[in-house]
Every structure is written in C-alpha cells, then in structure tokens.
Amino acid sequence: MSIKIDLKIDGEDLRCYPIPRIAQYRTVECLLKIARRKFADWDEQTKRRLNYATLPGGYLKYFTLAFPGSPTIVAFSEKQVVGWAFAFREKVGATNLFLFVNKRYRTHGIATALINAALENLPTIALAHWNEETERFFNKLHEEYPAGIIVYDWWKNLEKYTKILEAALLH
After folding, report:
1. What is the pLDDT of residues 119-154, one digit of tens each?
2. What pLDDT shows up at residue 134?
3. Which candidate, 122, 123, 111, 117, places its Cα nearest to that of 15?
4. Can you give the C-alpha Rg of the chain in angstroms?
5. Rounded CA gap, 75 and 151, in Å?
6. Strands 95-101 and 125-129
7. Cα(51)–Cα(110) distance, rounded to whole angstroms?
8. How far apart are CA 14 and CA 53, in angstroms?
C-alpha cells in the first residue's frame, strides 16, 4: 500500500509517493513526484531530459517526435527524472504505455508507480515486454490487474510500430 502526499511545486500540483524500496532506508525527503502532461507541453529542457532518459537506439524518442500530443507521466526524485511513461493510443484497443526507468532506480518500484499512475486515468493499458525480466514483471502486473493490463511481445510487433512511426514522421 503506497502513501500518497499531494504537494505543489512552482504552482504545479504533483502527486508524491515514497519510493517503495528506498524510502525505508532514507528520510522523508526521498519522495517520488509524479507529474502528468502531454509531451509537447513540457518545457524544452524537460523534453531534452526525457529524450535523454531513454534506451540508446530505442523507439521512445521517435514516438515523442511522431506523437508529441500524447500524454506522459514522469517520475522525479528531488530534481532528477528517474523514470517516465509515454502513452500512445492506436485507433482501437488499449493504450500502449512505453516505459523507461533510470538504471540506478530499477527494482525500486518506479515502473510500478508509473503504471499505477497510468491506470488511474486509462481503463486498459498495453505493456510490451522486450526481455525475460520485463516479461516476468509485466505478467505479474497483469495477474494483479487482469482487466487493466494487456501484455505483448515488443519484438513480435516491431514491424507494426516501425510502420506507424514511419507514416507519422513522413507526414
């Protein structure tokens, strides 16, 4: 059970959560701040920080270029981006949620916090696993939220997403 703390920073409402596996070892200043807005609505510095906080050669950067009006959910710890999610909805079906968590913060509950934040506003999300670790993690979440989470294989759908990106970036 996570404890939510609401706070305002620079006039913006942020939802704050203790970072699950870090908070027990640190003081209360170790809070995970969750902010939501469309990618295009972030200031230029934050957009650069988000695009930097992706896997090298990953597709997340291209999705932000192709669909800048899509929603994002960003997790901050103090002043650092520790993880973020990009929501992309195809014409029908669940909303795809693409995630990135800073390597130093993996296994600390950041991805779970981002997914839970997405489920607050989206009835169903689709998560694409890309390796055995993410497959186990996403399937575990699917068991917890069977109606809210769909899990699929990124590599089996790579061609489909490549075509979506190419079409969007060419227009």
Report:
1. 998 989 999 999 999 999 999 999 999 999 999 999
2. 93
3. 117
4. 16
5. 22
6. parallel
7. 18
8. 20
Q: What pLDDT is stored for residue 171 in this prediction?
A: 65
The long-range contacts involving 96-99, CB below 8 angstroms and separated by at least 24 positions, are 96/125, 96/126, 96/128, 97/122, 97/125, 97/126, 97/127, 98/59, 98/60, 98/63, 98/128, 99/127
Instruction: State the Cα–Cα distance between residues 29 and 18, nearest whole angstrom.
Output: 9
What confidence tens digit (pLDDT) does each residue in 60-81 have? 888 898 889 999 999 987 768 8
